[in-house]
């Protein structure tokens, strides 16, 4: 079944992979970007942190297609550095994109989703299940997005809107180039470099695109989907080990 899809943050990385996969499967895909360029699908200029722009993007899709079937909240970034050196504004900035941006999109899209079978797919992170040292604001925001997604799913359970969260592990994208340093230290530099190297060996983002394509064809998709060999491997261990052991493993991973 052809779906009309809106994917935020579709100019690169996971968002681009999702938009490409859905476009190739015959869906009508609109991507968004703060700085759009020519692609195989329509790309709308959108900054999810700016009030009014989400509603404008949704209106553009509705005017062109007459409906919206799928919203994929993918736009996001990561603020890095030692927490002790961060100004509170850095945390606000992180949440404004990764959490409040998703909420702005949901509020704009819901009036056009609630009258027929439709989907909201939020792109979280395995990093939302544990604190990543020197990338803690990102972990905080993705944990908040997971709670947001779960709560929204319950509150919309009597409507035709299905809500799911995808939690990827390390994915081979240029995500590192978009990291924003809010404070610095030598130890933080080492940890972030380890993140970059790990991501360079991560899973193909096309896998996430294929997963989204499957989700939006399901009558009853799951609330959460883990993807990536690292997340699938470590998720059971997080349940088995006490917090002290989990923290030790994470610290060893990032050179602390």
Q: What does the model show?
A:
The protein has 256 residues and is an alpha/beta fold. The chain has a single domain (4-253), classed as 3-Layer(aba) Sandwich (Rossmann fold). It has eight helices and nine strands. It has a seven-stranded parallel β-sheet with strand order 3-2-1-4-6-7-9, sandwiched between helices. A two-stranded parallel ribbon has the order 5-8. Strand 1, helix 1 (13-24) and strand 2 (28-33) form a beta-alpha-beta unit. Helix 3 (88-113) packs parallel to helix 4.
Keywords:
alpha/beta, 256 residues, 8 helices, globular, seven-stranded parallel beta sheet, two-stranded parallel sheet, 46% helix
Q: What gap, in angstroms, lies between the N and C termini? A: 49 Å
What is the approximate shape? globular
Number of domains: 1
β content, as a range?
A: 15-25%
Mean pLDDT: 93
Q: What's the architecture in CATH terms?
A: 3-Layer(aba) Sandwich
Question: In summary, what is this structure?
Answer:
The chain has 256 residues and is of the alpha/beta class. 46% of the residues lie in helices and 16% in strands. The model has no long low-confidence stretch (mean pLDDT 93).
Task: Outline the secondary-structure elements.
Elements: E1 4-7, H1 13-24, E2 28-33, E3 42-45, H2 53-65, E4 70-73, E5 79-80, H3 88-113, E6 118-123, H4 136-155, E7 161-168, E8 180-181, H5 186-200, H6 206-215, E9 224-227, H7 229-240, H8 243-253
Parallel strand pairs: 1-2, 1-4, 2-3, 4-6, 5-8, 6-7, 7-9
Helix pairs in contact: 1-6, 2-3, 3-4
